[in-house]
Automatic annotation (TrEMBL):
It comes from the Bacteria. Residues 6-105 form the Rieske domain. PANTHER family: 3-PHENYLPROPIONATE_CINNAMIC ACID DIOXYGENASE FERREDOXIN SUBUNIT (PTHR21496:SF23), FERREDOXIN-RELATED (PTHR21496). SUPFAM superfamilies: ISP domain. This is Non-heme iron oxygenase ferredoxin subunit. It holds the Pfam family Rieske. It comes from Luteimonas kalidii.
């Protein structure tokens, strides 16, 4: 597990309804960070159904979901759980914080 936080962007560069992708500096994992009405959430940028980046899909802030463009699997951005087939497994959820005017995240898996 990494204790190093990865800078995503300046806080003002991730507005409500937007998402940004960063790569964990230690593990190299792609992480997509969402701004949902001022609350920040981070998921692995990888569909659990088929290894494809979620950030290519549609983020729906009203439903708090991201839909994989490849096969239509949807995930709750708040906890990573799969909401419909063809995905059944959740997507990894990561911590995210606001600090020193920036948005930060990290891959905290063992």
């Amino acid at each position: 597990m990494s204790d190093a936080w990865t800078f995503v962007c300046a806080a003002g560069d991730l507005l409500p309804g937007e998402m940004k992708v960063a790569f964990d500096e230690t593990t190299g994992a792609a992480i997509v960070v969402f701004n949902l009405d001022g609350d920040l959430y981070a998921l692995e940028d990888l569909c659990s159904h088929e290894a494809f980046e979620l950030s290519s899909g549609a983020y729906d802030p009203a439903a708090a979901t991201i839909e994989c463009v490849l096969h239509g699997a949807k995930f709750d951005i708040r906890d990573g759980r799969a909401l419909c087939a063809p995905a059944y497994a959740p997507v990894a959820k990561f911590p995210v914080k606001l600090e020193h005017g920036g948005v930060w995240t990290r891959d905290d898996r063992d």
